Structures are given as C-alpha cells and as structure tokens.
Amino acid sequence: MTADSRRRGYSRCRGRAAVLAGPVLAGPLLAAMSMLAAGCAGPAGVQAGAPARPHRAASPPVTPTPSVTPVASASSTPSASPSVISVPPPAARLHQTRAFPSARTRVFHAEMTDLWAAVVTGRPRPAIQAFFPLTAYQQVKAIYDPAADWHDRLFADFRLDVAAAHRLLGRGARHTRLVRVIVPSAEAAWINPGVCANSVGYWHVGGARLVYRKDGELRSIGIASLISWRGRWYVVHFGAVLRSGAYGIVDDPESGSGQPGPAGGC
C-alpha cells in the first residue's frame, strides 16, 4: 500500500470516535515507506468504511464478562513520577500457541502500568515491552519485510499515538492516576493464518479501555487493538488501526469508563 493509498484510509477505528492530534512529523522512513501489511497489523486491502471481518474460532467465547484489571486505588495519591514495572520479554524464536491471554495476570498489570507511564511522559520507550514484539511480528506477517514495517509503520504510529494521548492529558499529566483497565475478553476472536496478510494465527480483541482519574474526574481512552503472542496480550494499535497520514490519534476519549469494544477487526 502506497502513501496515496494510506491517505484514502479512515481515521475512525472500528466505528469508534477518534481524536486526531493534528499533523505530527514522523521519521523520514515513515514518510517514505510504502505500506506493506494488511488488516489489523497492516492497512493494505482494507477500504475506508469497510473494516476487515475476522475468522472466528469455532469455540464459544472464553470469558463471559469483560476482564477488569485494577491498577491503582482511586484514593491513591498520584506520584510526581509515573511507575514503570519490569516486564519479561518474550523468549526469542519460540513459536505461537493457542493459549488464551488473561487480563488478570501480573504481567498484564505490568504492561498496562508501563503503557500508562508512556502516556504520562509522552515517550513510548517505557511501554516497549507492552508493545507487540518485533520477533513475533516477523513470524506473524506474510509480507516482504516485516521488520521494516514494524519499525517504520507499526511502532512509528504507536509513538505518534502516545504523544497524542499525552497532549490529551494536558497540564498536570504526571499527576493523573491509572485506575483500571477493561478488556472485553468475551469479544476476543482467534484470527486464522491467511487472514489480514498473516502467516500465523493469534487472538485479537479491540476496544479495551484505560480508565484514569484526573483532577478528581474519572475519564478513559481506548486501546484500538490487542493481539496475543504465546498467551500474553500486547498492544499492536493504540490510537487507531488505520489513519490517513502521519499524525497521532486518541481512541474514543470519554468521561467515565466508556464502552469497551466493539468486536471485529483483526
């Protein structure tokens, strides 16, 4: 997919409202590259207004209700410095499994804590272990150069979206407090190999919610797409799956906890 094709994409993910942060210059590689991937982890082949539909597993949903991960007490005193928790990296060169990810594990709690630290500081690096691993992406994508696509598009978009979410928090961002993370686990679907230019299957769920407190008010933003690798959830698209240019997007900012989902995508 070329840069012209990308401009014909849509900036609204899964029908949810998305806040555009305005044009932001990305690295020269992002500006020059052609879009290689397809579907959830790559926009090629998905037309505006027609999100790809996943192949769902034959088995019923694994979890009947959304998974809620408490991150901090609502009455906690915000720290001047955001917390970062060490997250174990995935073992290199191991293959995918069908293990269903849980949003109630210590590892997921650590991933979301680090994602919030990235939002609070406006820097993506604290959340690098919460982002879909390069080594896994190289196995998943059936495209010419998945490593280049990961660096020049996938992580570059994540960097822009983190910056956009940071700007949404505004002054006093470091004094916000992540309260909980809601993952609509019942809406997760197994994406079969061959769908969305993938050579390996994975679990996918859209529309998780980061619920936070700022100035005494409960607010939330979405995570456009989580996908699995070896039984763990990872962020693969933060603000949106597709966009029409090199700018950051905040997925569905709301007062209160917002509405997780909807299902669909890959």
Describe the structure concisely.
By secondary structure, this protein is an alpha+beta fold. Helices cover 21% and strands 23% of the residues.
What is the ordering of alpha helices and beta strands?
Answer: HEHEHHHEEEEEE
Portion of residues within helices: 10-25%
Radius of gyration: 17 Å
Biggest sheet features: 8 strands, antiparallel
State the separation between the terminal residues, measured CA to CA.
17 Å
Integer count of domains: 1
By DSSP (H or I, 4+ residues per run), the number of helices equals 5
The oligomeric state of the chains shown is single chain
Question: Which residue ranges are poorly predicted, with pLDDT under 50 across at least 5 consecutive positions?
Answer: 1-15, 23-40, 42-64, 72-80
The average pLDDT score comes to 79
Structural class: alpha+beta
Q: How many beta-strand segments?
A: 8
Q: Tell me, what's the shape?
A: globular
Strand content: 15-25%
